[in-house]
Every structure is written in structure tokens, then in C-alpha cells.
């Protein structure tokens, strides 16, 4: 059951990261390690307070 969800999440993350027209040097990629696998999060500069708060954890 987790395999289709994991595949969907990975495909969505791949699409978001690769199809973005934004300047990739301005945004931050964060990898979260869990017991069920890794999660990659893209933090945009459009939300600077949220980005700063997340990166300060």
C-alpha cells in the first residue's frame, strides 16, 4: 500500500523540482530523513518568514 503513495510523492517532487521556472539558486532544498524514507522539500523565497523559521530548526 505504501509503494503507490511513495511513487506518487517521488514523481510529484521530481516534477516540481524539474519543471520550475524559478531561479534555483534562490530557493532551498531540504531533505528530511524518516524511518519510512527521505522527503525532499523545496522552500521558496516567496515565503521568507516560513523559510527562515524552517531552516532555523
From TrEMBL:
Could you tell me which SUPFAM superfamilies the record lists for this protein? Answer: Cyclophilin-like (SSF50891)
Looking up InterPro entries in the UniProt record yields: Cyclophilin-like_dom_sf
User: What is the protein name given in its UniProt record?
Assistant: Peptidylprolyl isomerase
Which organism does this record belong to?
Answer: hydrothermal vent metagenome
Amino acid at each position: 500500500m505504501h509503494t503507490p503513495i511513495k511513487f506518487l510523492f517521488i514523481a510529484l517532487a521530481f516534477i516540481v523540482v524539474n519543471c520550475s521556472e524559478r531561479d534555483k539558486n534562490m530557493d532551498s532544498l531540504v531533505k528530511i530523513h524518516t524511518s519510512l524514507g527521505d522527503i525532499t522539500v523545496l522552500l521558496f523565497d516567496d515565503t521568507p518568514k516560513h523559510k527562515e523559521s524552517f531552516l532555523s530548526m
